[in-house]
Amino acid sequence: MRTPAGIGASWRREMERQAEKLFHCVHCGFCLPVCPTYLRLGDEADSPRGRLHLMRAVVEGRLGTDSGSFQEHLDLCLGCRACESVCPSGVEYGRLLEGARQAAASARPPSFLARLLARVMATPALAVPLLGAARLLRATGLPDLLARRLPAEGRWGVVRLGLGMLAATAPPDLSPGETLYGSSRPPSCEGSGTGPGPGEGGIGQGRRVALFRGCVQNGLLGHVNRATRRVLEANGFEVVEVPGQGCCGAIHAHMGDLAGARGLARRNLEAFDGAGLALGGATGAGWGAALPQHAHWWDGGGPRGGARGGGGGGGLGERARRFSERVRDVSEVLAETGLRRGGSLPLSVTYDAPCHLLHAQGIAWEPLRLLGSIPDLDLVPLPGAEECCGGAGLYALTHPDMGRRIGEDKARAVLETGAAVVATGNPGCMMQIGAWLRMTEARVAVAHPVELLDESYRRGGIYGG
Ligand code: SF4
Ligand code: SF4
Questions:
Q1: How many CB atoms lie within 10 A of CB 215?
Q2: Homologous superfamily in CATH for domain 9-107
Q3: pTM (two decimals)
Q4: CB 418 within 8 A of CB 151
Q5: Does residue 91 line the site of ligand 1, with CB under 6 A?
Q6: What b/e sequence results for 430-446 when a residue is b if at least 16 CB atoms lie within 10 Å of its CB, and e otherwise?
Q7: Mutate to test the pocket of ligand 1, among 23, 37, 52, 91 (most ligand atoms within 8 A of CB)
Q8: Ligand 2 pocket, CB under 6 A
Q9: Which of 14, 115, 302, 463 is deepest in the core (most CB within 10 A)?
C-alpha cells in the first residue's frame, strides 16, 4: 500500500489494520439499502461502498485528500454506521470514517459553525453560561413559537431548526392533562410500586454507578440526568458524582479533530479513573459510543469485539481500555438485572433507536425491555426505527438540506404511528426529532426511555410523597 504524504498517521495505522477488510469488500451492496444518503440521492458515491472506494483511492495515492469528490461525499455521510451493522465482511466503517475525516480536515478545515460549536462544548467556561442563557430563552416559550412560525426556506431555515431543537429539550409533558390524556388523571395511575428500594436489597444493591452527564445534555436536558439518578437509586444502585468530567469528544472525532477528541478523552479518563468506579453509565448514545473509543483513539485498539473493537497497545490506551470496559448505557445497566415495577402509565409510545446505540454499540433490545416493563404502556412499532433521524451530532445544522429531508421523513413516520410519545435515548436524536415534529405542527412529546420509567415510578408511589 503506498500512502500519500499528508495523510494522518493514525488513519494510516487504521487503514493498514483494516486493509484486509477494506480491500476485500466484496461489493455485495448489502449496505446500500440501509444508507440514508444513498436512499435519498441514489448516487453510488454517497453510499458506503462508494465512500470506501474513495478512501481506498486516497490510501493508494490515486486521489488527493483535498479532491472535491473525497471531501464532498465523505462530508455528506451521517456517520450513522447502519452500513456496519449489515456488512458481511465486517468492515469497521465508523473507524475508517473517523480517520478519513481526519485526513479530509487536514486538507480542508470543517465549517466555521462546526468548529465554533465544538470549541464551545469543549470549554466549560463558555458552554455553561451559554447553555444557561439558552435555558432562559427556552423558558420564554419563544423558541417553540418561532420554530412553528418562521419560514422553512433560506437562511431562516437553520435558525428555525436551531430554535426547534432548543424547544425540544424542554421536559416532556407526561403528566395527566390536556396534552396526552384529555383533562383527567387515569384512575389506574395510583400507586402499584413493588419490590425493594434503596438500601433494601434491590437488584443493583452493592453496585456503584457514575453517570456520565454529557455537555449538551447536562446543560439542556438535565431532567434526563435527574430521572436517571432517581430510577437507578430506586433499583438499589449507589449513584456517585464524578467531578471534572466533560464533553466526550464525539463531535470532535466526527469532524476529524482526533487530537481534540483525545484531549477531551484524557480529561474524562482522569476524572473517572480517579473515582475508581465499578460502572460508568451513559444516558446518551453518542457518548456511550465515544467513551469506549478512548482506547482506540490512542492506540488503534478497543475494548470489545464487534462494533466496539478489539486489541491494542499500552500506556494511555491501556488505561482507556480498562475505563471503556466499564462503560455501559443506562438501559443496559437497568435491563441486565431486571427492573422494579412502577405504576400504570397508559401512554401510546413509539421508540426510535439512536444509531450510536443500535449500530455503534449493538444495543437493540434493552431500551425496549425497559419500556416493556412499564405497566399499561402501549409500545407501537416505528417503521424505520433503525434509520438515522438526521441529527447526527452537528449534521442537521451543518447539512440543512439532507438533515431536513431525513428529519421530515422521521417526523412523518412517528406521526403515522399515532403515538403520543416518541422515546429515544440520545440528546441529538431528541432534539432533531422534537424539532421536526414541532415544525410539522405535531403535538407529540419526546422523552428518554428512562424518563418514562421515572414517571411510572412516580405514579406508582415508589419515590414516596
Ligand atoms: S456491505 Fe460491506 S462488503 Fe458489502 S458492499 Fe458494503 S462495505 Fe462492501
Ligand atoms: S455511516 Fe450511514 S450515511 Fe455513512 S455510509 Fe454508512 S449508512 Fe451511509
A1: 25
A2: Alpha-helical ferredoxin (1.10.1060.10)
A3: 0.84
A4: no
A5: yes
A6: bbbbbbbbbbeeeebbb
A7: 91
A8: 34-37, 48, 51, 77-83, 93
A9: 302
* pLDDT band of 371, cuts 50, 70, 90: very high
Q: Which residues contact 226 (CB under 8 A, 6 or more apart)?
A: none
pLDDT reading at 305 higher than 60: no
CA of 236 to the centre of ligand 1 (A): 44
Q: CA-to-CA distance for 367 and 297, rounded, in angstroms?
A: 28
Cα atoms in the 13 Å half-sphere on the side-chain side of 358:
26
Residue minimizing CA distance to atom 8 of ligand 2: 35
Q: What is the pLDDT of residue 302?
A: 38
Q: Is 27 in the pocket of ligand 1 (CB under 6 A)?
A: yes
Strand partners, 421: 349, 445
Q: Which residue's alpha carbon is at the smallest distance from atom 2 of ligand 1? A: 87
Nearest residue CA, atom 8 of ligand 1? 25
Least confident residue range of 10-19, 43-52, 227-236, 317-326 = 10-19
Spacing, Cα 26 to ligand 1 middle (Å): 6
CA distance 256 to 252: 6
| pLDDT tens column, 155-172 | 788 899 999 999 999 999
In ligand 2, the atom with minimum distance to the C-alpha of 34 is 7
Q: Quick one: which ligand is closest to 29's CA?
A: 1
What are the sequence ranges of the domains in the chain? Answer: 9-107, 208-333
| Alpha-carbon span 267 to 144, nearest angstrom | 35
